[in-house]
Each structure stands twice: as structure tokens, then as C-alpha cells.
């Protein structure tokens, strides 16, 4: 019983955070997307996965102040490692701008703004790739300095690479491996990244 209580305490603690809820919803969404590929009720399961994804989008709109604060803190920090500082600042800035562009895309889809959402979603993808690239470079440098060990740095790299594979797949066809993954493979890579993110939030 004590172990169950500890597990519930840990789960409640992580789900009380933005990162915990976001990664939990993302994991559930891609679990459903993967399950849908072999389900006889594919459309129903995919619709539920889409609802989870939509819930994440709404929750992300409350994360703007936190992202802006992170950018502010970075810009007012005196770096000791300029390479680390550049990668961290580039990634955080890309994600912060991504949030604003995504908000415009969402409001355009909802017909609140009379704008074409397609171009905003396209820029969201480019910003995501930029953020992932800076994150991958940063993690590879950290691992090269520490040595290859199965720890959170390596798991973070695996998660970033998994997302990067899916992000490139989402680009217009004929760009690297874009349009080459099946729906099952895309969901599987995204699920790996999601589960790693949830594990790190614990």
C-alpha cells in the first residue's frame, strides 16, 4: 500500500505541473494515433486522439508568460559557456515565437482572425525544426563531454531526434525523408518522444 501511495503522490505531483499535463496528453494522443492504425474503429480512435491534441493546444496558450520570462532571463544572463548559451537561447526563442505564431494560426482556424492559417502552421513547423536542431546540437555536445551513458541527456537526445524525424517528414515532399513515413511510423516516433518527455517530468 505504501508503494501505491508513493506512486499516486508522484503522479499527482507531475500532473499538477504544466509540463506533466502536456506530456501526459501528448503521450495519450499518440498512443491513440498508433492504436488507430490497427483498430476496426479507426476514425473514432483518431477523433479522440485529435481531441487530446486540441486540449494541448489550448493549454499551451497559458504557457506564453513562462516562455517570455525564460527568454528574458536568458537575455539578462551573463554566459560562461557561449556555445551552450547560444543553443539554449536559440531553442527557447524559437519555441517562444512558435507559441505566438501558433496562437495566430489557432485564432485564424477559429475564424476569430480573417487570416490564412496555412502559412502560420507552416512557420510553426519551421520554428519547431529550428528549436529541435538547436536542442540536438546542444545534447550531442553535452554527451560528447560527459561520455555516452544511459542517462537523461541520452534520453533527451533520443526524444529530440524522434521528434526531428517526424518534423522533417511533415515538410513538403522531396525534402530529405519528407512524406516517406507511414502513419504508424510517424505515431511511433512521436510516442517515443512523448513518453521520454513524460518520464523526464516525473
From TrEMBL:
Origin superkingdom: Eukaryota
Subcellular location field: Peroxisome membrane
Coiled coil start-end: none
Cellular component, GO, one term: peroxisomal membrane
InterPro entries reported for this sequence: PEX11 (IPR008733), PEX11C_met (IPR026510)
Keywords: Membrane, Peroxisome, Transmembrane, Transmembrane helix
Principal subcellular localisation of the protein: membrane
GO biological process: peroxisome fission
Alphabetical list of Pfam families matching this protein: PEX11 (PF05648)
Key word Ligase present: no
Membrane-crossing residue ranges in chain numbering: 120-137
Listed name of the protein: Putative PeRoXisome assembly factor
Organism name: Angiostrongylus cantonensis (Rat lungworm)
Amino acid at each position: 500500500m505504501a508503494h501505491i501511495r508513493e506512486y499516486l503522490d508522484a503522479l499527482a505531483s507531475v500532473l499538477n505541473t504544466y509540463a506533466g499535463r502536456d506530456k501526459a496528453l501528448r503521450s495519450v494522443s499518440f498512443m491513440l494515433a498508433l492504436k488507430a492504425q490497427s483498430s476496426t474503429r479507426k476514425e473514432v480512435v483518431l477523433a479522440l486522439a485529435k481531441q487530446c491534441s486540441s486540449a494541448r493546444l489550448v493549454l499551451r496558450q497559458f504557457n506564453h508568460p513562462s516562455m517570455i520570462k525564460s527568454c528574458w532571463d536568458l537575455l539578462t544572463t551573463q554566459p560562461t559557456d557561449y556555445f551552450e548559451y547560444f543553443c539554449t537561447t536559440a531553442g527557447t526563442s524559437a519555441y517562444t515565437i512558435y507559441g505566438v505564431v501558433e496562437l495566430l494560426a489557432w485564432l485564424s482556424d477559429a475564424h476569430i482572425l480573417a487570416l490564412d492559417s496555412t502559412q502560420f502552421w507552416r512557420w510553426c513547423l519551421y520554428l519547431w525544426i529550428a528549436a529541435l536542431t538547436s536542442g540536438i546540437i546542444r545534447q550531442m555536445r553535452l554527451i560528447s563531454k560527459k561520455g555516452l551513458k544511459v542517462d537523461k541527456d541520452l534520453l533527451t537526445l533520443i526524444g529530440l531526434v524522434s521528434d526531428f524525424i517526424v518534423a522533417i517528414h511533415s515538410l513538403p515532399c522531396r525534402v530529405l525523408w519528407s512524406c516517406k513515413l507511414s502513419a504508424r511510423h510517424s505515431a511511433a516516433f512521436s510516442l517515443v518522444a512523448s513518453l521520454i518527455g513524460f518520464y523526464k517530468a516525473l
